[in-house]
Amino acid sequence: MSIEFIGMACALGLSAMGSAFGSGFAAQASVGAWKKCYANGKPAPFIMVAFSGAPLTQTIYGFLLMNFIRSAVEGGCDAALAMFTGIFAGLAIGLSAFFQGKVAAASADALGETGKGTANYFIVIGIIETVALFTLVFSLLLLQ
């Protein structure tokens, strides 16, 4: 076994773990916000489904990074560099998903209570998404 496989596994695994936790937090908050809406006789915004699913994209980034690591090593990239890139980038992408879920949870709660601010909530969620995108792109540049 070569050490780059550790990086590949971490790139996908840590990203997916962050997505699982993040979407779990957001989904729980969405259900709670819907419950509040129903209890108060207000319409329950369906857009909260998007809050719940927002952290899932980081799993895709982890999968892409895993494949880029494999291609980079096949192209002559140092296996240790590939391993550490996968570990640290996977962790950064996973943390992005984790905190994106926390913000999406707060967004669902706020939207359920006020019915206002949807665009603002998505802007903040998008800022956190950018951390994962930057990590993916900068990791690809490092592996070249």
UniProtKB/TrEMBL annotation:
User: How does the record say this protein sits in the membrane?
Assistant: Multi-pass membrane protein
The Gene Ontology CC terms held by the record are: proton-transporting two-sector ATPase complex, proton-transporting domain
Task: Give the top-rank taxon of the lineage listed in the UniProt record for this protein.
Answer: Bacteria
Q: Which residues form the signal peptide?
A: 1-22
From the Swiss-Prot or TrEMBL record, state where the protein is found. Answer: Membrane
Q: Which keywords does this chain's UniProt record carry?
A: Membrane, Signal, Transmembrane, Transmembrane helix
Q: What are the transmembrane regions?
A: 43-68, 80-99, 119-143
**InterPro entries associated with the record:** ATPase_proteolipid_c-like_dom, F/V-ATP_Csub_sf
Task: Please list the GO terms describing molecular function.
Answer: proton transmembrane transporter activity
Q: Which Gene3D superfamilies match?
A: lithium bound rotor ring of v- atpase
- Residue span(s) of domain V-ATPase proteolipid subunit C-like: 85-142
| Name of the featured protein | ATP synthase subunit K
User: Can you name the source organism?
Assistant: Vescimonas fastidiosa
